[in-house]
Amino acid sequence: MRPSDGTGKNGNSQNRLRIEAGWSDERLDLSEKVAVVTGGARGIGGATCLELARENIKAVAVVDMTPDLEAVTSEVNEKLGREVLIPFRGDVTDATFRKGVFETMQKRFGAISICVPAAGITRDRLAVKLNKETGRAEIYSEEDFRRVIEVDLTAPIYWSMETIASVAEDRIRRGAKRWEPAEPIQGCIILIGSVSSAGNKGQISYASAKAGLEGAQATLAAEATFHGVRCAIIHPGYTDTGMVATLGQEFIDRNILPQTQLRRLISPGEIASAIVFMIRNSAVSGQLWVDAGWHPAA
User: Fold this and answer.
1) Which helix (H) or strand (E) covers residue 36, if one does?
2) In what order do the strands lie in the sheet with 85-89?
3) Is the pLDDT assigned to residue 233 strictly greater than 90?
4) Domains of the chain
């Protein structure tokens, strides 16, 4: 019997497989990377900050409006034994605040190359609701619609573009030109979509914002690769966060859990783990749905 050379029908040798599986590591090294996470003190954003810290990231700008932001970041830093989470309290829609965060972090740590703009709000109501007493139709508040779009769509796009600019300027300073595959990946942006991007009753503003992020992701991905920055989007299902809690337990038990294969809410840590996987794996692009098997009833 002739000994096998390890070549299968697909032409891959055992040696090649052994090298690819055992010695080749294309994961993004986070130890010298600087990140910014909005909504970073709670929910998905907070869990993402913790996951990045566990992965030995150099520093994370934790952006949030919660009053206990400094206490939260200090506690984590103390447990880690190093100052990795840097708090910034402010409104993510404020351009001056955003630029200040980048300037401060860049002076102290270098270019910001990872961005997870997780801050978001909801203002859920029917798009058109008939008032039975007056017989008139009430249309969704334009003020609320604009605010949701501003926080959930416009702000994430601008924090992302600021990150791309930070990497681009850093490359110019170092004399680098167009990114080439022989270089390591320079950075990554993960936008936070939602299963609601496919449309969801009572979420005209939120669903519009999250659907808009899909177009933004595809556009930024096509442009940012020039600088070696990837851009992807994750679509979480119903997650155990303060935002979902506002729906009320009765609503969750009646309208959400029965439509979810796991029959429970997703934990923020599960989403954060998926986000960091997307950041570290250079081959991941486009969209990732982490919905726990949620299928809305017709």
Assistant:
1) strand 34-38
2) 85-89, 59-64, 34-38, 114-117, 187-192, 229-236, 286-290
3) yes
4) 28-290 (3.40.50.720)
